[in-house]
Each structure stands twice: as structure tokens, then as C-alpha cells.
Write a structure and sequence with these properties.
Largest sheet: 2 strands, antiparallel
Helix content: over 70%
Number of helices: 11
Number of strands: 2
Shape: globular
Order of helices and strands: HHEEHHHHHHHHH
Distance between the termini: 38 Å
Radius of gyration: 23 Å
Mean pLDDT: 87
């Protein structure tokens, strides 16, 4: 304890602050570099037109629309199932070996490489269920990839709620479902939103899972249904950076900046919602 007083405490505090700043510094430098290189490429034509000249000119509108569709589909698939599964594991299932095995499995699934999810999605949705290479197959694959993180975040957020809160609600005559829906879930919502933001942000920037399930190399039109293929920003960036010769740097820099802006924008929206629910 003596080390945490006087000069020793200040030294430890200074080391912690220094390590914290150093860990953030590379991210700040990368973001500044992306903004510096990407801003000159941004224009209305770049954001609102299709690629032309073998994707060496024109815009990235199909890739932007495709990424937005996939993100919305991923949220629709993963968020309801993830939250309900977390509620079931904490509030309704018995504490036995089966629940412990399920919890351990979910934690391990969160660490599986994304390309494995892509191969699984291709085998199950594209080939076995014959959904084909489509938005539906891609959204289901990304949704499954997001489930472990959302379930884990929901479970930890619910476990952090004091038992006294549940007992007080039940003592006042509320049913278990009323207690969960009206008392426990709103209290745990900020923690749950954190897990949702992290998992969806990861999905929005993934390339491997969508390579086998949904994306096309190039499409001159926008998707009209969930059975259509789409272009997506992460895969489009991969294609123009590795598969298209003589690709102008400004298009790659602009695409990178759009991906970062969409991802950061989604995180900011989640942070605003989390703060709003935390203040209630």
C-alpha cells in the first residue's frame, strides 16, 4: 500500500497515463493519415455514381449501398437473437453443467476467424439451403458471426444487475417477465449496446465472410431484393487494391475514408444512444 502514496503513486499514475496515450497514438496517426489522403478524393460524383473504366474512374455508390444493406441485415439477424439468448441464459435457464458448456462454447465462438464463418455460411446458406450468393446469405452469415459477442455482452450486463432489484420487483407483485422487460433490461441496456456496437462495427468492415456468400466483383446496378448480390466497401477496396492494375491512388484513398467514416459514424450513433439510455 505504501507504493500507492506520495511519489510512488504519482510515478505509477504517470506510467498508466503514458501507456494509455501510447496505445491511442497509432490509431490517431492512422486516422489523420486516412483523412489527409482521402479528403481530396471525396466528391458528389465519387459518392453517387457507379464505377467506370474498369473501376479506375467514377464512384463507389453500389459498394456504399451494398454495405448499408448488409449492415441493416446483420442487425436484424443478430440483435434480437443475441439479446433474447442472453436473457434466457441469465434469467430463465438453470445453473447447471449444460448452461456452463453453452457459455463456454459461446465465448470460444467469439474467437473463431471470420473466414471460417464465411465458409460455414457458404456451405449452409448458399449451397445447402440454396439461397445462392445473395444479401440474405451474407446477412445471415454476418449475423451468426456477431451473435457470440452480443450474447456475451448481454449476459454480462444482466449479471451486473444487483439481485436486490429483481427481488424488490417480484415482491411488489410483478411477474418474472415484467421484471425482466421493465426493470432489468432497461438497466442493462447501456452494456448491451456496447456489445452490439462492437460486433456490428466488426461485421461492417469484414471481407472474408462476404466473399463466399454475397459480394460480386463488379455490378453496374443496385440490388432490388434480398436475393441479389451486392458490392461492399471492404471487398471493393480489396479488389481495387489487389486485382485491378493501374488503379489510381485517389480512388483507394477515398474508399478507405468512406469505410472509416461509416464505421466511426455508426460507433458515434451507438455512443449517443448508450448515453441517452444511461441517463434515464
Amino acid at each position: 500500500m505504501s507504493l500507492l502514496k506520495g511519489t510512488g503513486a504519482k510515478v505509477i499514475e504517470g506510467i498508466i497515463k503514458g501507456v494509455g496515450y501510447l496505445s491511442v497514438l497509432p490509431v490517431v496517426c492512422i486516422v489523420i493519415y486516412i483523412i489527409f489522403k482521402g479528403v481530396p478524393s471525396i466528391s458528389w460524383e465519387f459518392l453517387a455514381t457507379n464505377p467506370t473504366d474498369g473501376m479506375r474512374a467514377g464512384g463507389i455508390l453500389p459498394a456504399i449501398i451494398g454495405s448499408i444493406y448488409l449492415t441493416i441485415g446483420t442487425i436484424a439477424v443478430s440483435v434480437p437473437f443475441g439479446i433474447l439468448t442472453g436473457i434466457f441464459l441469465v434469467e430463465y435457464s438453470k445453473d447447471n453443467i449444460i448452461r456452463r458448456v453453452i457459455n463456454l462454447t459461446i465465448v470460444n465462438l467469439a474467437g473463431i476467424p471470420s473466414i471460417i464463418y464465411g465458409l460455414f455460411g457458404m456451405s449452409l446458406f448458399v449451397i445447402f439451403l440454396q439461397f445462392g450468393s445473395s444479401i440474405l446469405s451474407g446477412a445471415l452469415t454476418l449475423g451468426i458471426m456477431c451473435l457470440p459477442v452480443i450474447i456475451t455482452a448481454t449476459r454480462e450486463a444482466l449479471l451486473a444487475i444487483p439481485k436486490d432489484l429483481r427481488e424488490a420487483s417480484l415482491a411488489l407483485g410483478a411477474t418474472k417477465w415484467e421484471t425482466t422487460w421493465k426493470i432489468i433490461l432497461p438497466t442493462a441496456l447501456p452494456g448491451i449496446l456496447t456489445g452490439i456496437i462492437l460486433s456490428i462495427s466488426r461485421a461492417a468492415g469484414e471481407t472474408a465472410p462476404i466473399m463466399f456468400t454475397v459480394v460480386a466483383f463488379y455490378l453496374p446496378f443496385l440490388p432490388e431484393s434480398v436475393w441479389d448480390q451486392v458490392m461492399a466497401l471492404p471487398y471493393h477496396l480489396y479488389v481495387i487494391a489487389t486485382q485491378v492494375p493501374n488503379m489510381p491512388d485517389k480512388i483507394m484513398n477515398g474508399t478507405v475514408l468512406v469505410i472509416v467514416v461509416l464505421t466511426v459514424g455508426f460507433n458515434l450513433l451507438g455512443a449517443v444512444l448508450r448515453k441517452k439510455f444511461s441517463s434515464k
